[in-house]
Amino acid sequence: MSAIASAIEACNAEKGKALSVFLTAGFPSVKNFVDLAVSVFDAGADIIEVGIPFSDPLADGTIIQQSSQSALENGVTLPHIFEFTAAVKAKCNKPIILMGYANPILHYGISRFFSDAKNAGADGLIVPDVPLEEYDGFFGEGAKNLEIVMLSTPASGAERIKQIDNMSRGFVYCVSVLGTTGARAGFSEETILSLQRTRELITKNKMLVGFGISSKQNIQQVAPHCDGVIVGSAVIKSLMQESSSQSFSNTLPLVGELKDACRNR
Predict the structure, then answer these.
(1) Which member of 14, 35, 56, 60 is catalytic?
(2) Residue 240 pLDDT more than 80?
């Protein structure tokens, strides 16, 4: 079993759900990002998704867009991200997934990217704008180095979901709702039915739900229909509101609360 799937399975074995936390690389500070990531792991995250800043993030809502722009202004590049990953891995061996768009990876060089990411200790990769039809051409041999997590959406048909499951490693990222990332008050009955349908079709991998997960109530609503949840915007928003980038005194308790909501479901 892969490192990512093993981490999720360990949570499920205790009748809980895995918590994956998205952090924009180098935000809010390049200097303290490694400390932040390690602290988020210590606070309860089972997996961290390290976001690669990009100027045109099509699937990201306002909060993550702002953090990405800030990181770019801080001078964050892919070599920085590999350094962050290696430094976090030296302190905590939980799974790290790199998440970003195709353009920066293509600009860096796909083969070079996969090699450097693997050498840094990254476990997986999510590229939201690479569809199934372009899987082989984009990931190619690199898929042997990193676990490629593919995304399903409410618009995905049954056969496509099965193909996504077959091509994914680590887990399938189930996008809960159409649109961009961002906190939501709750999920409709239609959304819950979509999650149920998707989970029934996924037989090879674990399924984590993302987009709109921001609170204990959100997690309680979707937990019966998934193996874990992904939280991004709520954590990034909390980081934006911190009075100090040193202690993360609001964000780390939030991560702890989210993890508590994942337990014993």
Answers:
(1) 60
(2) yes
Counting every residue written for the chain, the total comes to 265
* Catalytic residue list contains 49: yes
The beta-strand segments (E) located in 52-153 are 96-99, 124-126, 147-148, 151-152
Instruction: Say whether 110 sits in a helix, a strand or coil.
Output: helix
Q: Alpha-carbon distance 216 to 218, whole Å?
A: 5
**Sign, CA torsion 54/181/2/159:** negative
Do 173 and 195 form a contact (C-beta atoms < 8 A)? no
Catalytic residue (choose from 9, 14, 35, 49): 49
User: Helix 251-262 crosses helix 233-240 at what angle (to 10 degrees)?
Assistant: 160
| Tens-place pLDDT, residues 68-118 | 999 999 999 999 999 999 999 999 999 999 999 999 999 999 999 999 999
Using CB atoms within 10 A of its CB, is residue 203 exposed (0-12), middle (13-18) or buried (19+)? Answer: exposed
Distance CA 90, CA 87 (A): 5
Asked about 56 being catalytic, the answer comes back as no
pLDDT, tens only, 156-204 = 999 999 999 999 999 999 998 754 444 445 678 898 999 999 999 999 9
**CA distances (Å), origin 68, targets 53, 60, 110:** 5, 10, 21
What is the rounded CA–CA span in Å between residue 143 and residue 20? 21
The span from the CA of 106 to the CA of 110, in Å, is 6
